[in-house]
Amino acid sequence: MAPASPPPPRLTWQFLRLAGAYWNCERRWTVRAAVLLLVALTQAQVGLAIWISYWHRELFDVLEARSLRDLVWLIATFLLIFVLTMLVTALHLHVKRWLQLDWRRWLTDRLLDQWMAHARHYQLQFTSGEHDNPDGRIAEDIRIATETAIALALSLLYSLLILGSFIDILLDVSGSLPIPGTSLVVPGYLVLLAFLYAGGGTVFGLLLGRPLIRATNRLQTVEANLRFGLARARENSEAIALMHGEEIEHRQADRLFADVGQGWNRQTLGYLGIVSFSTGYGTLLPVFPILVAAPQFIAGGMTLGVLMQAAQAFQRLTSALSWPIDNLGELAKCRASVDRVVSLYNDMLLLEERADNPVEHRIDLRRSQGDTLTLRNLSLANPDGRVLLEPLDLSIQRGERVLISGDPTVTIALFKAVAGLWPWGHGEIELPAGQSIVFLPQRPFLPDGTLQAALSYPHPAGHFGHAQILHALDCAGIPWLAPRLEDSDDWDRVLPLRAQQRIGIARLLLHHPAWVFIEEATDAFDVQGEECMTEVLHRELLGSTLLTISFHRTLEHFYTRRLVLDRLCEDKYLNCSPEPAPCALREP
Question: What integer is the mean pLDDT of 529-542?
Answer without folding.
Answer: 88
